[in-house]
Amino acid sequence: MLKVMSLMKRRDDMTLDEFRHWATVEHPDLGKKLPGIRHYCMSVVIEENPDWPFDAVSEFFFDDKEAMVAAFSTPAGAAAGQDAASHCSRRVRLLTEEHIILP
Fold first, then answer.
1. What residue ranges do the domains of the chain occupy?
2. What digits encode the pLDDT tens for the residues 66-92?
3. For residue 103, what pLDDT is reported?
4. How far apart are CA 40 and CA 62, in angstroms?
5. Contact, 74 vs 34, CB < 8 A?
6. What local confidence, expressed as pLDDT, does residue 100 receive?
7. Considering the domain 2-97, what is its CATH architecture?
8. Is 68 helix (H, G, I), strand (E, B) or coil?
9. What is the pLDDT of residue 16?
10. For the residues 25-49, what does the mean pLDDT come to?
C-alpha cells in the first residue's frame, strides 16, 4: 500500500485555530472525494511553535502508485491541491510505503 504524506505549513496570515479548522473540517470534504482512497488522516499540531517547520500532516493511502496518480489527476484531486496551495505557505509531499512496527 502506498501512503502519500503532505507536510503543511499554514499561511502567515492564518492563526493556528483558523488553520486547524480548515485542515480538519473544510479541506477533508475535498480530500474524501478522491477516487480509490483507502484511508485518510489529518494531524495538526496541538500547540503553536514558530520554530516548527510544519503545522500539519495529511496522509492518504492508496493501493498503488497508479491509483494515487489516477486520483490526483481527477477534478477532485485538482480541487484538493488548489485548496491546499491556497491555505499553505509551504507543502512537501512524500510518497512512502508504510511498515507497521507495532499494531
1. 2-97
2. 999 999 999 999 999 999 999 999 999
3. 84
4. 9
5. yes
6. 87
7. 2-Layer Sandwich (3.30)
8. helix
9. 97
10. 96
What is the strand order of the sheet 56-62 is part of?
Answer: 39-44, 56-62, 2-10, 88-97
Phi, psi for 74 (deg, rounded to 5): -85, 165
pLDDT band at 40 (very low <50, low <70, confident <90, very high): very high
Cell triple for 23? 485542515
Question: What is the identity of the amino acid at 99?
Answer: H
pTM: 0.90
In sequence order, what DSSP letters do the residues of 6-57 get, joined into one string? EEEEE-TTS-HHHHHHIIIIIHHHHHTTSTT--EEEEEE-SS--TTSS-SEE
**Which three cell numbers, joined as nine digits, stand for 63?**
493501493
Q: Which three cell numbers stand for residue 65?
A: 502508485
Q: How many CB atoms within 10 Å of residue 20?
A: 18
